[in-house]
Amino acid sequence: MKLSSWEMPGILRRLPYLGTEAISAGRLRLGDDGNAYLMRSTSPAKVYVISSSGELLRHLELDPPDIGQTPMAMQLSGDRIAMEFWHCSNQCETTELDVFDANTGKKVSGLSRQGIFGSLSCFTEKPERFTFLTVNDDRKLARITAVAK
């Protein structure tokens, strides 16, 4: 889908071009602070914090757990960014969840688990909890909750 210039905030038209996959696999979330957080699916992950008026407030580079990993999902809560990374070679073996400070980009916690949880649907900062939606063996929607240690 191509956006016309009237649909795109000014700052988005000026961001460096890194290819369509970085954009199509990216995410946009609205923070509790009223700013938009635009994640580009690159390694390291790039997050642009954009004000409601379209001004670029800051740019964060969030290092993945392993070199070359790209983020699959992003959720926000308070001043925290939860980022989901998958470790995939021939198939996806490990889910990595890292939590970053939304102001500095510093990693504050994380967890790793064999296998794929599902789709990261929600993140809460206090207590730090990740909620995933998936389909169980009975082909019914299931919710999985994970807590960072």
If you average the pLDDT, what whole number results?
78
- CATH C-level name: Mainly Beta
Q: C-alpha Rg, in Å? A: 16 Å
Strand order in the largest sheet: 1-2-3-4
Number of helical segments with 4 or more residues: 2
Superfamily (CATH H level) name? TolB, C-terminal domain
Tell me, briefly, the overall form.
Answer: globular
* End-to-end separation: 40 Å
Features:
disordered N terminus, 11 strands, mainly beta, four-stranded antiparallel beta sheet, Neuraminidase, globular, 149 residues, 51% strand
What does this structure look like?
The chain is mostly beta strands and 149 residues long. 26% of the residues are buried. The termini are far apart. It is globular. The protein has a single domain (10-117), classed as Neuraminidase. It has two helices and eleven strands.
Structure in a nutshell:
With 149 residues, this protein is mainly beta. It is built from two helices and eleven strands, in the order ααβββββββββββ. The chain has helices spanning 10-14, 20-24, and strands at 27-30, 36-40, 45-50, 56-62, 71-77, 80-88, 92-101, 107-114, 119-124, 129-135, 141-147.
Q: What is the element layout, followed by pairings?
A:
Blueprint: H1 10-14, H2 20-24, E1 27-30, E2 36-40, E3 45-50, E4 56-62, E5 71-77, E6 80-88, E7 92-101, E8 107-114, E9 119-124, E10 129-135, E11 141-147
Antiparallel strand pairs: 1-2, 2-3, 3-4, 5-6, 6-7, 7-8, 9-10, 10-11
